[in-house]
Amino acid sequence: MTDSAAVDQIVRAVIYPAIGVARVGNSEYEYVVGPEVPDPPRLPAGSYRDKAGALKRQAARFRIYGVNAAGEIVRELSGEGTGAKITWHVELANAKAAWYTFQLALDIPEAASAPTTTLRNPTVADRSKLSILPGPRSVAGANAKPALFDNGAFMGRTVYLGEIFTDAAGRLLVLGGRGVSASHDGSAAKDFANNDGWFDDTSDGPVTAEVSLDGKPLDVTPAWVVVTPPNYGPRRKSVRTMWDLMRDVAVKSNSLAVPERPSFMQDILPIFQRLAGLQWVNAGFAAGFGWKGVFDLTSSEALSRLSSAAPEHAQERQTISNAFRRFDVDSWSPKPWPWMYGDAMNIPAAPTPRQNAALSDLQLFMLAQWAKGSFGADYDPHHRPPAVIEDVPVKQQGDVLTRAALEFCLADAFHPGCEMTWPMRTASMYMAPFRILHAPKGWTSPKPRGRLTSESVKTPNGPLWQQQAGGITRWMAVPWQTDTASCLGGYDKSYDPYAPTFWPARVPNEVVSQADYKIIVNPKESLDARKAAFAKRASWIEPIDNPDYLVRINNMVGEFGKLGVVEELDGPTDTDAFPRLIEVEDQHITPATVQAAAGAARVAPAATRTDQSEIVKLRRFPHGLPVQVR
């Protein structure tokens, strides 16, 4: 066989993305497909809701590629005329209620000072009633009819977790649940993460397939799907994404090489763009990194300097690099970048370096290289990223699909988080970079004991090793709505009313309202009025907010679909006083309107008000911390 023939010889199949991300929504049937390129074009306004105003679910789409002996993609096997026959297999499960409480990430030293990690629902003797286990489903061919995950149950109540089907090319689509969360006994939620008697319809599990090419069976490298809460900021990425975190894990475990020279376009510029992008979901970031902000790093003038390796810009690069938080230098202070809470966040701040977040070690290393001038000065102001995966060279499509899915997932403040949490920092969770290690068929996981510690969690073949369906989302809050409604920004108002913040890229804090946008783009309004409207931000949480914290989190359970989605719209063209693109909340329903529409379904305000400082999420160390936890 010639070398060229070997390159084109398909020897096995691989499913991409390695981890797909689906999201719940309360629309009965409509959905959008999740990002398949890292910088997808915006969808038309209104695309995230159905005609009734319900929030569409996000589908995860999977493809199968044939690869050669070197592991390089030769071509996609999904679709007509490929000579391939594919049968997809997916298993979804929700094991939250049968798992342990979330108190604090168990891979950090502060966990020893947090409340004990014990089993959820400890009084339920028959633990099988707590896990929603509908079993595997399969589909084959093009336009396969949906196979529903609709026979799993929680405490005897049937719970729909989603469905799978294929598109016209035979690619797999996975939909999750519709955001249904409830308690089996009608009790109200009381905690940000651990509500006994409750379930939700998020889930996760393995994605596998049987593939034959021209009649010959191929081994298939499997993937995973995670069904998560909605994305209320679909254009936004956090400063450190789940892709950044998993890349860092792979580098530290020697599964990936450290880049010899970081690329400005691929490694440095995205950090600056994400800081600037958070201006649409947090007022503090708007003032600091937004349009004409104090630290506007993405203007054409700034980028002409920051993208240059010339010695005359060395001090500016060093100053910016120094502004990012390093745990061994300035970890306690809220001032360094990014202005995000960390895994051990507490109010008042505890003496821990993880009170606030930092970039990944790899990101910080690449920033340091950039500061020294040792980077690829490859900035192209006219570059246009691929709009669809078909615009990407086929050999790169698999990795791009994975990056696109994971860059819209958070890796900040694993408290516990939005999509996935702290176990994803553990190398034993992976079979390859970005690819979760599957448990073998028939494997029985160790039975959970009464409590989990930072030591017992590391047991070989324990929860941080091979995974079964439900193994990723079990670490998250139950239900997810109570945590989402708890994670805002600016809890210490004496320092700053908006920052630090938790997860604004997924759970916005302050947003441009439709009413203010109409003023901004109206040339008949005075420029001063338009600038005032642009500077103004509405409270995103307002439609379900209440001074009583318990009312707020319970309102979120039933009304999450009413909260605004931040969409990208065109800015004014008659003046250069505003950016050309502005992100705007698609709706902002006042509390009075919501209450009238919801009627008795809405929880009435309590007679007494709960002080925010008394929220359990903000008080992780009831007995204090040892001095200077490292």
Automatic annotation (TrEMBL):
<dbReference type="InterPro" id="IPR041168">
    <property type="entry name" value="LodA_N"/>
</dbReference>
<dbReference type="InterPro" id="IPR033798">
    <property type="entry name" value="LodA-like"/>
</dbReference>
<protein>
    <submittedName>
        <fullName>LodA/GoxA family CTQ-dependent oxidase</fullName>
    </submittedName>
</protein>
<feature type="region of interest" description="Disordered">
    <location>
        <begin position="445"/>
        <end position="464"/>
    </location>
</feature>
<dbReference type="Pfam" id="PF17990">
    <property type="entry name" value="LodA_N"/>
</dbReference>
<dbReference type="InterPro" id="IPR041173">
    <property type="entry name" value="LodA_C"/>
</dbReference>
<feature type="compositionally biased region" description="Polar residues">
    <location>
        <begin position="453"/>
        <end position="464"/>
    </location>
</feature>
<feature type="domain" description="L-lysine epsilon oxidase C-terminal">
    <location>
        <begin position="351"/>
        <end position="503"/>
    </location>
</feature>
<feature type="domain" description="L-Lysine epsilon oxidase N-terminal">
    <location>
        <begin position="16"/>
        <end position="227"/>
    </location>
</feature>
<dbReference type="Pfam" id="PF18417">
    <property type="entry name" value="LodA_C"/>
</dbReference>
